[in-house]
Design brief:
alpha+beta; membrane; Heat Shock Protein 90; kinase; 14 helices; Sensor_HK_TwoCompSys; transferase; 3 domains; about 400 residues
Amino acid sequence: MRHRTAWQALGQNPLKVLGSSWPWRSLAYLTTGVAFGAVAVSALLAMLAAGVVSLVVLIGAPVLLAVALSGVAVTRVERRRLRLVDLDPVPDPHRAPDAPGLTAWVRTRLREPATWRELGFTVVSGTALWWVDLLVLAFAVVVPVLLIVTPADDPGAWPVAVLGVSLLAAAPYTITAWAGARAAVTRLMLAPRDDELGRELTDVRASRARLVDAFDMERRRIERDLHDGAQQRLVSLNVMLGLAALDADPDSPVATRLAEAQEQVTLAVEELRELSRGVHPKALTDQGLTAAVENLAARSVLPVTVDVRLPHRLPLSVETAAYFVVAEALTNAVKHSKATGAEVRARLHTDVLTLSVSDDGVGGADPSAGTGLVGLADRIATADGRFRVSSPQGGPTLLHVELPCR
């Protein structure tokens, strides 16, 4: 298994760390941390001093503003350095400015909490983190090397050399451990907060809901085209074949062929009706969820008990989601569960539709096994609903759905 962080590599395979690239990556991470930290602190202190001194002549304000925004630049470098010991990138919490230009960029950054959190990280990094990096490198590498070369001046100090060799042998673990801990702290401080991701998450949820609605509209359009177009033409063709059969000699080959053609057209009409029900049932649009579920139960090869009590019609999106939950559950019961019966129950509690589908089959339904449950869970999640499956080995299987009807 490929590890994503130095901390994972050290925690799960400590004996294999020496043969991996993680100690070297960790060494590069800490070494660049010391160098970048020293340069950044020096530059920021110089800018801060220059800004304070020149503030009296009103030219220090831009310098101090640059110091306040310095965390944006520092943490951008830190996010790139973090990839040395953490392969998963840290998302940038900043949003795009509302308008082009430097003024809009500065105004946007100053209003973002992430900017001040990044400034705080810069202060912590400059006053503590890179100093700790330096101490860890000194303890893990410099001190052991000095202990190892000590017997060159004092031959009686060979125990010190043994201690140095032992410390140097442990250096890969020491360096990797601190690099992993430092990376975890950095990710914790730089990762976007929930409120900063709120707009993006809301946009994603709205986009997913629009896609589901567009898909359902397309299903309804296809159902109408099948019902009003191809199906009606086939029915008309069936009638014409019946009329032609009346004009033919009952015992002639033509009458036999017409009867066979009429039979095939009748089968095609039935298959087309089944197909249109699978695309989007007309009963769902015209009569509501209760009638559509009763039609499903009537067509099922399993005995299905329907107990759906709804005081009024629900939003079409809710009815559609509930209908396909029932349809998929009954299909799975027929194909996989070896059930002898099923039950569908639905109630409206205030503004939440509670739907359950159960069967007495062998159980073992697994959403990851490609039975369609994953798609149902995604559809329910899009509607801000809850979807739970209980299907122990030996049965029974219960699907429970809660859909808000706002």
